[in-house]
Amino acid sequence: MDPVLSRLEAAYPKLPRGERAVARVILDDYPFAALESLRTLADRAGVSPPTASRLVDRLGFDSFTEFQTSVRTGAQDQSRLREFAAQAPDPGSAARELQDGLSSALAALNTPLLDSAADTLVAARSVWALGGPLSELAADYLVRQLGALRPGVRLVPGPAHEQARSLLDMTSQDLVVAYDFRRYSARTAAFARAARGRGARLLLVTDAWKSPLADDAQTLIPLPREAAGPIAPLTHQIAVTELLLVATASRLNAAPRLAELDSLTASLQPDEP
Fold this sequence. Notes:
The structure is a single chain. By secondary structure, the protein is of the alpha/beta class. It has 2 domains: 3-87, Arc Repressor Mutant, subunit A (Orthogonal Bundle); 98-264, Rossmann fold (3-Layer(aba) Sandwich). It is 58% helix and 9% strand. A 5-stranded parallel sheet has the order 2-1-3-4-5, with helices on both faces.
């Protein structure tokens, strides 16, 4: 793995807020953001150049020039590795990597955290779920399955005026479940923070670097960073959602609701010719 990325990932959880903003810019647009001037990097992160410089020092580099030299070297090495992999693909290795990542993701949701999240999903008056361009699929899956188990489960609508209506009656009895992964969604952040402003609780599923919403969440589920080739591992998000659903179902007497749902579904089916 690129040594600069390794250092960033190791340091990220303990970084001060300003340095974490710089690290997030670098990680979101690596290696290009790291190869810009120090001032440009700081401007993109919304911090001062000294803050960006302190991050470089913390990573163990004597100067910003040395940092950029290491970035260039790592990027070149990664380019060579990708070229080699393209010439000699190993599907078996990719499958093992995905499987290992799935195991790590499930292990991240330990028993106390799972119990806390499930209790929150049961107790909320209403549950609203949303995600980014890809993670919205996990949010939609949560809504479809959880809505069969309990009332008041909805997907956050897309248009701003519909989101505003959703927020109108939101209180501290309501819960927002947000899936937010790099690159983090401004739309997700805006709705979640507006809901928090009205007292709603926030359950956040995010990655190892943690969404900017992490500090706003009452329940935080950070999944480990695991690559899956050129695609984002949606499998991990769905698997963790399944765990949440199973734990929540065990706390609910959902049998009568599910039976009624089956009966209603059958009554709406057209008669066979």
